[in-house]
Design a protein that fits this description.
With about 80 residues, the protein is mainly beta. It contains no helices and seven strands. The protein has one domain: OB fold (Dihydrolipoamide Acetyltransferase, E2P) (Beta Barrel), CATH 2.40.50.140. It has a five-stranded antiparallel β-sheet with strand order 5-4-3-6-7, with no helix packed on it. Strand 6 and strand 7 form a beta hairpin.
Length: about 80
């Protein structure tokens, strides 16, 4: 991932993080109801962070997470990754 860093006299003064990142689900329990979208479960991401996400998300799925809040935004379908 590329992150914009502005330097002043060789020292970083500003770091521009992306609004969202795409991460893979490393572990999560099976969903109670596969198509349920109103209840959430806990999952561990590839970076070790834990998030709440809908029941239909499975291990190995890729999800988009909002950087500022750490909240789940959406599941990333294969072939639709954003740069």
């Amino acid at each position: 991932m590329r992150i914009l860093v502005q330097l002043y006299e060789g020292e970083p003064v500003t770091i521009a993080f992306p609004a969202a990142v795409e991460l893979t689900i490393m572990s999560t329990p099976p969903g109670l109801h596969e198509h349920e979208t109103t209840t959430f479960k806990t999952a561990t991401l590839e970076n070790g962070m834990e998030v709440l996400l809908p029941q239909f998300i499975k291990e190995g799925d890729m999800v988009r997470i909002e950087v500022a809040s750490g909240k789940y935004l959406e599941r990333v379908r294969r072939g639709t990754h954003k740069a």
